[in-house]
Every structure is written in C-alpha cells, then in structure tokens.
Amino acid sequence: MRVDKYLWAIRYFKTRSIATNACKKGHVKIGGDSVKPSRNVYPTDKLEIRKNQIHYKIEILDLPKSRVGAKLVAIYCTDITPKENLEKLELLKYSQDYYRKKGAGRPTKKDRRELDDLKENAKDDIE
Q1: Is 19 in contact with 41 (CB distance < 8 Å)?
Q2: Which end of the chain is more exposed for a tag (fewer CB within 10 A), N or C?
Q3: Entry's Gene3D superfamilies (predicted)?
Q4: Distance (Å, rounded) from C-alpha 29 to C-alpha 100?
Q5: Measuring CA to CA, which residue among 78, 33, 87 is closest to residue 57?
Q6: How do the pLDDT tens digits run along the chain, 127 residues long?
Q7: Which residues contact 93 (CB under 8 A, 6 or more apart)?
Q8: What's the pLDDT score for residue 21?
Q9: Given this model, what pLDDT does residue 52 score?
C-alpha cells in the first residue's frame, strides 16, 4: 500500500491529497529518509510524521483495505511517539492562547500592561 494512502486510511490526514503533500514536503520519513507518496509500506515499518510542529512516530501493524473508522485505527498501527513530543503539544496550546487574533486591532492599555509585566518577569528570570 502507498504511504500516502496508508496515512489517509488510518486517519492521520483528513484527505489523501494532504497526505501526498506532506510526503512531498519531506514531513514523512521511514528509517530517517524522506519518502515519496508512492513508496510502499509494509507491516513492521516505522513512520515518522511531522504534523502541527510535532514529530509523531507510529509502527505499522497491518494494512487496511480502505479507510477505517476511528475506533479501528489501533488494529493497524501503534503510536510510539515519545512523551517529550506530546508535552511540546501542550506548550503550543498555551502559547497560542496568548497571541491576539488577526484583525483584533491595536492592543488595549490592559494588553500593553500585561506585555510589560511579562517582559519584566522575563528580565528578572534571566538575571
């Protein structure tokens, strides 16, 4: 089975074209080497996938005949992603909450004061 089709079938990517683009950009690796979307995968292969700034690692257990339901994904792969990578995901969630949305306009006086306090605390931590 093609690697892009496999990633789509186990619901790692929403569409097959997104999976294909990820392969073309070098976000999917097998054995440390970037792979083309047409590369065949086999059981016991270990994939490294970069998605949303996180490096996920999965081991292929079996190949599905077509796209599977979310409850059946565990039959076809196991997630062997290190815990440090998943902790980065939590940090990304917190950092994204801080940024202002596009089109929100200029920072208010309260926002500016919070930024100043944050900068002062960062200077104190460095010293």
Answers
A1: no
A2: C
A3: RNA-binding S4 domain (3.10.290.10)
A4: 34
A5: 78
A6: 999 999 999 999 999 999 999 999 999 999 889 999 999 999 999 999 998 888 999 999 999 999 999 999 999 999 998 888 888 877 777 766 566 666 777 878 888 888 888 888 777 766 6
A7: none
A8: 95
A9: 84
Structure tokens of 107? 């920072």
Contact partners, residue 22, CB within 8 Å, separation at least 6: 4, 7, 13, 28, 49, 50, 51
Greatest alpha-carbon pair distance for the chain in Å reads 59
The predicted pLDDT at position 89 comes to: 78
Alpha carbon distance 36, 16 (integer Å): 13
Establish how many alpha carbons lie within 13 A of residue 6's alpha carbon, considering only the half-sphere containing its beta carbon.
Answer: 25
**Token couple for 87:** 């902790």
Burial readout 71-88 (b: 16 or more C-beta within 10 A, e: otherwise): eebeebbeeeeeeeeeee
